[in-house]
Amino acid sequence: MLINKSMYPVKAGYSAISTMQGQLGKLQTQLGSGDKAQTLAEMGFDRTVSLATRNRLTKLDSFAANIDTVNLRLNFLDQGFTSLAKLKSETRTSATPTSYGENNLTMVSLQKDSQNRLSQLLETLNLSVAGRYLMGGNQTDKAPVATYDQIMYGEGTADGYLKVAEERRKADLGADSSDTLDNVGLPRTTVLGPWKNKLVISSAEFERFGYKITSISGNSATTQTSGPTAEPLAPTVQVSTQPADGDVVTFNMTRRDGTTQTFTAKAVAPPAVPDTSATPPEYSIGATLEDTAGNLENLMGQKLGNLENFKIFTSSDADVKVISYSDGMDSVSIKFDKQPADGETLTIGIKDRNGVTTDFQFKAVTGTPDPLATNPREYQIGVNREETLKNLKGAIETSVGGLDAPLKTGRLTAGTMAAPNDTTVRLEEQSPPTIFGYKLASASTTSSKINVSAVAGNPANMSVEFMGNPRAGESVTINLKMPDGTSTPIVLQAVDREPVTGQFVIGATPEETTANFEAALKLKLDQTSKTELVSASSYAAADDFFTTDGVARRLDLSGGDPETATVFAAPNTRETVKWYVGEIGTAGDNPRLSATAQVDDSTKVGYGVRANETGLRELVKTLAAMSSQEYDINDTTSKARFSAMVERQMATTSSSTATAKGSIEQIGLELGVVRATTGGASERNTAASGQLETLLSQVETVSMEETVMQLLALKTRLEASYQTTATVANLSLVNYLK
């Protein structure tokens, strides 16, 4: 306690009291505010520590704000990419090749399902948060991707994907060929019967050209006609081992109306004369297997009438049976019981793709047929029924074979070379060269009688030479490069029976086999073009439309129609919707860096996404291509196209694509790393902030308990000083003497 020993220390006392009052006021202020000082000057040397600490805390606060913003956007992106990954998985598993579903439901619904998925995908790519679009790179003020309707159907005068795909399909398929049915080995005709007196005309392959056999007429005392029907025709007895005298055979038969009947016959050996009235009726064992078969067939005809009335024959003897022709297609049959009469006619009706039916008439003549007579077309009555039927077969093949058979060969031409190279079929790319359609890759054969060679170049060509007849089962394989970069093999197998698509009949001579191979090659090219090539073209069109910069590649149509186009037009010369209008970026750059944020002193995270990244763009292309294909159950190409499209869909969405740069899975993983990085930075920043707050508290704030104690102690001193000063101030001689 400061009490001056001087008798009259009033001034010094007042000064001490004033100082203590100042200290008291300061302590009261500290007690009220909790701060050690109200100004930087009052802080003394601590002000440097305070300023540095507060500056650091401000910086950490800005990092925290950045992290909050990034996490908000990452939350939306995480939801978006979870949805995209699920969408990709659904697309991959939505269908499998050749699995058409019950009543073909999976096939016919695939287009609509793909359209719905594409619409969902485009909405996700236009994801926004508080007016900021998240998948346009650094272009955040507008939707990066056009709408579904704009992309598919176009807008105003600008074309959409469907128009681009239609033009590309026409360019890849090329113009129709000028072939006729005869050029492709049609109609398919088969001669049957022990005496080669039965002829079946099949409508196999007719449907691809829009033709249909609608009728046949001409029944007479000499001729029987049947069909059209897809059920078995031209039942013929076939004997593989001569029966012994007295052998009995029983046939269980089903008529076309579904009723059944049983017939039993007994074989007798010459010189015995068979008794057709016996029970069972008898037939003669002939000199040859064919004679025996003919004798039994005659007996069955006598007892049962027209065998065409039956569709199923089951024999008790494996060496004696009845066979019929059936390829599952509508067919008609003609049987000469006897030689036809001069002038006798028969008629076959064929309906074309426009619904118009043409009646093809054929007239039997004893003399030389008139080459100018086309309807009825004349055929000569031969020395026996076999020869007559052969002449009729030739007349039918000439008349019906003259019908147009336009083929799609994908800008390739195939044909037999002129003599003396008429055992060689040449397949070549279009000249002048074009970038559309098939490209010849390679060829091989399993036959030593066939030589295949290829000439590279632009255009390239291949040759298939028949040095002899191949054996049944041997084949030729031609590998074709498709417009979407995939490869498809065309395999043609030699057979010694009625062929199906992808097979050619071994002829009597190499020249005949060559002609059959050419016909089979053209049919296979046409089938492949309308299925595999159409599918590949849809995906190629998606490549053309969904480019990285959004500018579609369009056909140069200055020379005419898409079928004759050979190159692409210059960019932006044809109005087309831009599917993507966000940041394009440069080759090799990191799209994540199109949006960045500083989360601590040394860490900057990138969380940008561009809708044109490889994985996202591939899914858009796949779903757009799938959305463009319709699968009508009445279209004979639907199932093969469905399988070809689904194969490509499965390839572009397979799990193996997850490791590719820019895949949906990779982008999601990279954004996950960003979230982990921001989480780590947030934890570090929070810890640092706590330490700095403690330091700042030590520098700037006071201890309330200590301040209260100091305040009470100072108050006691000040009260004592007041009392002492007042007492001293009142000291005088008068007061002393009192």
From TrEMBL:
UniProt-listed SUPFAM superfamilies: Phase 1 flagellin
Write down what this protein is called.
Answer: Flagellin N-terminal domain-containing protein
Species name: Devosia riboflavina
